[in-house]
Amino acid sequence: MAKCTIRYWAAAKEAAGTAQEGVEADTLAEALEAACRLHPDDRFLRVLGASSLLVDERPVGARPHGAVAVADGTVIEVLPPFAGG
């Protein structure tokens, strides 16, 4: 399993109670499952579900999370929807 970092921004940071954390995973799906085990509350799950994801600065978009491989040193960014006008 690869050691990767998940970085949380804005509401995701608030819901997780931390700006970043390390997880071990082979895919983005496994990394997110690990994050959900660390933060099993509904608020975190809602924010995560509404967020956009970047893997090593590349948008994940509609790709299946199980098809997105991660490696040692991969950085996953969780970007919740931003309000503003």
CA radius of gyration is: 12 Å
Low-confidence segments = none
Q: Helix segment count?
A: 3
The tally of strands reads: 5
What percent of residues adopt helix (DSSP H or I)? 25-40%
Structural category: alpha+beta
Largest sheet: 5 strands, mixed
How large a portion of the residues is in β-strands, by DSSP E? 25-35%
| Strand order, sheet with most strands | 2-1-5-3-4
Average pLDDT across residues?
A: 95
Termini gap: 42 Å
Overall form: globular
What series of H and E elements makes up the topology?
EHEHHEEE
Protein name: MoaD/ThiS family protein
Pfam families: ThiS
InterPro entries: Beta-grasp_dom_sf, Mopterin_synth/thiamin_S_b, ThiS/MoaD-like
Organism: Nocardiopsis tropica
Question: What features would you highlight for this structure?
Answer:
85 residues; alpha+beta; 3 helices; 5 strands; globular; Beta-grasp_dom_sf
Gist of the model:
InterPro entries: Beta-grasp_dom_sf (IPR012675), Mopterin_synth/thiamin_S_b (IPR016155), ThiS/MoaD-like (IPR003749). This protein is 31% helix and 28% strand. It has 85 residues and is of the alpha+beta class.
Describe this structure in words.
The protein has 85 residues and is an alpha+beta fold. Helix content is 31%, strand content 28%. A hairpin with a 2-residue loop joins strand 3 and strand 4. The longest helix is centred in the middle third of the chain and has 11 residues. It is globular. InterPro entries: Beta-grasp_dom_sf, Mopterin_synth/thiamin_S_b, ThiS/MoaD-like.
